[in-house]
Amino acid sequence: MADKTPSVNGKVAEDIAMEEKGKLADDVLEGTVEVAPEYSDQYYRKLRWKIDLWLLPLMWFCYGTQQADKTSLSVQAVFGIREDTGLVGEQFNWLSTIFYLSYMICEAPGNWLMQKCHTGKFLATVMVLWGIIVLCVAFAKNFAHLMVLRTIQGALECTISPTFMLMTGAWYTSQEHTLRSLIWGTSNAGMNIIAGLSMYGIGLHAEKNPNGLAPTGSDREKREEFKWEQVWVTFKDPQTYFFFFVTIVNALPNGANTTFSKLIWQSFGFTSLETLLKGSTPYYAFGICWFLTVGFVTFKKPNFRFLMMMFSLVPAFSGMLALSLLPTDSMKWTRWGMYMLQVFGTLPGLMIWTFLPSNIAGRTKKTVTATVLFVAYCVGNAIGAQMFVASDAPKYVRGITACAILYCVEFCSMGLWRFYYIWENRRRAKIIREQGISEEESERLGKMNAEADMTDRENIHFKYKY
C-alpha cells in the first residue's frame, strides 16, 4: 500500500501493524468494502429485518430470563424467604453480595473461555446450567445452601451480558447498536412484569389455599488468538477508566434497588401482593416505554446517547432526593410517584454497555474491556447491596439518600466522558487534515484498519460515537 497512514502517536501504520496485517486488510477490503455498492438499500433493509426477526426475540427472552433472576431475590424477600430459611441480620444482603463477587471473580476466565469457544454453543451450555441452579434455589433450607447456589449463579451468569454485547456488535452497524441493545434490554422490565404477574397469581392462589404450596454473529465465526499487545493498549486507554468508574457509580444504586425495591414498595404500606401489582408492574411497564423512546431517538440522532443518559439521571436524582425528605408515615402515593422516577435511572446502566461495540476496536481489546466493565458492575452491585442495612428498615432513608447523591456524581462523570470523546475526535480530525487525507479516504482506511483487527487507539481514522 503506497499511502502511509498516521497513527495516534505519530508513527505510520506500518510501524504499528505487521506487514501481513496490511496485506490481510487489502484482501479483506477487496472482498468487502469495494463490493458493498452492489447491494441496494432495499436489500440491506430486508436483510436487517430478517436478522431482527430471528435474533432479537431470542436475545430478549434469554436476557430477560437471567435479568429476572437478579431481581428475584427482592420478590422472594416479600414472600418470606428470610423466614423460611432462617436468615438473620445482614445475611439477606450477603446473598446479593456473594452473587456479584462470584460474578466478578469469574468474569476474566469466563470471557477468555468465551473467546476460545463457539459463541452459540458456549452461551447455550451456560444458560442450561444456570437454569438448573436457579431451580435448586427452591429447595434451599438455610443460609449456607443459598450462599452456595448464589455463588454458582454468579459464576454462570457472568458471561451472558458480555456475549450479548459482542453479538450486537457483530450483527449490527454502529448506528444500529443502541436501538437494538435497548430493544433486548427492555426484556429486563418486560420479563419482570411477566414474572411479577405470575408471582401475583401464585401468591393469590396460595392465600386462598393456605394448606398448599407457598409462593416462591461473532466476527464471521472466526475465533482469533489472544493478543497481549492489545491488553496493554486497553490499560493505556482513558476509555477503560471511564468505563470502570462510571459503571461502579451506576451499579451502586442499581445493586441497592435491585435487592430492596420490593421492600421499599412494601414500606409505603403495600401488602406483599400489592407490591407486585401496584409497584413493580407499572414501574417496569413505564421502563419499557422509556427504553424504546430513547432507542428511537438515539437511532435517529446517534450522538445523543450521553445526552439521553444524563437527562435520565435528573428525574432519578430528584425522585430519590424527594423520597428521602418526605415524611415516612404519610403521603403514600406521593412517595410511590417519587420512587417511580427511579425507572429513569435504570437506563444508563444498559446504555453504558452500548459503547463497548461502538467505541472499542480490536477483538482482544473488546474482551479485556468487557471484563473490566463487568468487574466494575459486580463491585458496584456487591457494595450497593450493603447500602440498605437492616437497622434502617423499613424506611431505608440513608440508603435512598446515598442513591440520590450517586446519581449526581454519575451525571458529572458522564459529562466528562462525553467531553473526552468530542476532544479526541477533533484531535484526530486535525491530524488527518494536516496529512492531507480526504474524509472519504480516511473512512476507507479506517475500515481497512478495522478489518485488520487494529484497535481504536492505533487506528487514527476511528471515530468515537457519543
UniProtKB/TrEMBL annotation:
Mention one GO molecular function.
transmembrane transporter activity
The residues that cross the membrane are: 122-140, 182-202, 281-299, 306-326, 338-356, 368-390, 396-420
**UniProt keyword terms in alphabetical order:** Glycoprotein, Membrane, Transmembrane, Transmembrane helix, Transport
For this protein, the record's InterPro entries field holds: MFS (IPR011701), MFS_trans_sf (IPR036259)
What topology does the record note for this protein and the membrane? Multi-pass membrane protein
The highest taxon in the source lineage is: Eukaryota
GO cellular component: a single term: membrane
Cellular compartment(s): Membrane
Q: Name one Pfam family in it.
A: MFS_1
Q: What is the protein's given name?
A: Major facilitator superfamily transporter
